[in-house]
Amino acid sequence: MLYKIAVPVASILIFLGFWEFLVWVNGWPNYKMASPSDLPPAFWQYKELFLIMGWQTLWRTVVGLFLAVVFGTLLGMIIGFSRIARDALYPLLVGFNAVPKATLVPVIALLFIGQHDFNTVLMAFMISFFPIAVSVGIGLSTLEPEYRDILRALGASKFTIFRKIALPKTLPEFFGALKVAATLAFIGTNLVEIVSPHGRGLGALFKSGETNGNYPLMFAVLIALAVLGIVLYYAVVFLEKIFAGWAERAQS
Amino acid sequence: MKPDEGEVYLHGERVKGPRKTVGMAFQNPVLLEWRSIMDNVILPLEIVAPRMSRADREARAMELLDMVGLTGFENKRPSELSGGMRQRASLCRSLVHKPEVLIMDEPFGALDAFTREDLWQTMRDLRRAEPFTTVLITHDLRESVFLGDQVIVLSGRPARTQYVMDVDLPEDRTLDVLYTPKVADMLHILRDQIKIAQGRDGGAH
């Protein structure tokens, strides 16, 4: 237990020490590169903003991710069960996913002028549903027929087979994709917050740090984003342990 | 699935779709990894007998698990069991809803020789404890004679009945019976029939 905490803490401390050393040995001033020791004052000075804007970033990311889970799972089911849907939708999906999402920020900003919360959630959603849809689709379409036959031989309905077999069997793949999607959703939220800032979210705080040449603030925002990302990631890991813990093999 | 031709009758009744009175066993155990052995075995009951209580389901499953020697493993996951044990659990699942007919598609094909012989004996004991009709598809001649009351040799595609042999051996046969001259003769006849079915008389395999 102690080992489990000590090792990651030690690695973080070593990383911060190296960062501090790098800034010190190069003699970089604050406006070029902030050092870790500049960060606590920056956090303290803007602590209320960090709490308010951190919350704005977090809830919009989580809502976007939630929508991505619902939509991505439905889409994955359609792709997974219907060959025609798969052939029809894959090129569209791949094409949509290939478009750099930064280019869509001005598009949705114009489409839904002033709806900043909506735009941000929409971007978090758009950037993160793809891996979920693909992994659910692949999970369902590669279900071995024998698994279906166990229940079909007894006259079980398609829905029962889905609920008792296909769905649980796809869960490990789903959670694998959800980890990727959680990180992506953060990128989506911040993209909107930085490219079209409305004074909301950590991205806007980052932008204001940039405008004012406040480098310690900018780096403090980056650290705050990293912390939020870690929190969300481990929330997904926690859910995975509950719902798909069976897929984890005991380590030898 | 629609038949090209002909009809299938079970107990004088025409078969039109899936039936709850049939059990299936495959070459792979096909256990659900996220369920314990117990929950795997009671799965068919969830479909066939939705109103049966959990306690009754578990009692029925334990009966079978005891019979195949899996007592004490009911709370383990399939990944914690050996191949032979998984196939035993799979057998329990095929039988838990007391099917009238059990269809087995090379159920012991993926096991090593000794585990396979163990499972033959388990199979024999299960059928003696609660009799059910079994259709066993196999490529193992010894298996067919040891477990069967009647062995049917099928020809290649399209499959037709090539030869029928009634197995005239005592019901409580042991593995020793496989080493008697009588069984050796039977195996020889079956082997010859399979050669004919394959359309080549001298070739190996």
The class by helix and strand makeup of chain A works out as: mainly alpha
> In the residues of chain A, how many domains can be counted?
1
Give the largest chain-chain interface (CB within 8 Å): A-B, 21 and 22 residues
**CATH superfamily grouping of chain B:** P-loop containing nucleotide triphosphate hydrolases
User: Could you describe the largest sheet of chain A, including whether it forms a barrel?
Assistant: none
The CATH architecture classification of chain A is Orthogonal Bundle
Q: What's the CATH class of chain A, please?
A: Mainly Alpha
Provide structural commentary:
The complex is a heterodimer of chains A (252) and B (205). Chain A is mostly helical and 252 residues long. Chain A has a single domain (40-244), classed as MetI-like fold (Orthogonal Bundle), CATH 1.10.3720. Chain A contains 10 helices and no strands. Chain A has helices at 2-26, 39-45, 47-81, 83-98, 104-111, 116-141, 145-152, 158-195, 201-211, 215-244. Chain A is globular, with a radius of gyration of 22 Å. The model of chain A has no long low-confidence stretch (mean pLDDT 88). With 205 residues, chain B is an alpha/beta fold. Chain B has one domain (22-198): Rossmann fold, CATH 3.40.50.300. Chain B contains 7 helices and 7 strands. In chain B, the strands form 3 sheets. A 3-stranded parallel β-sheet of chain B has the order 3-4-5, covered by helices on one side. A two-stranded antiparallel ribbon of chain B has the order 1-2. A two-stranded antiparallel sheet of chain B has the order 6-7. Chain B is globular. The two termini of chain B are 32 Å apart. The model of chain B is unreliable at 201-205 (pLDDT under 50). The chains are: A mainly alpha (252), B alpha/beta (205). Chains A and B meet through helix 7 and helix 8 of A and strand 3 and helix 2 of B.
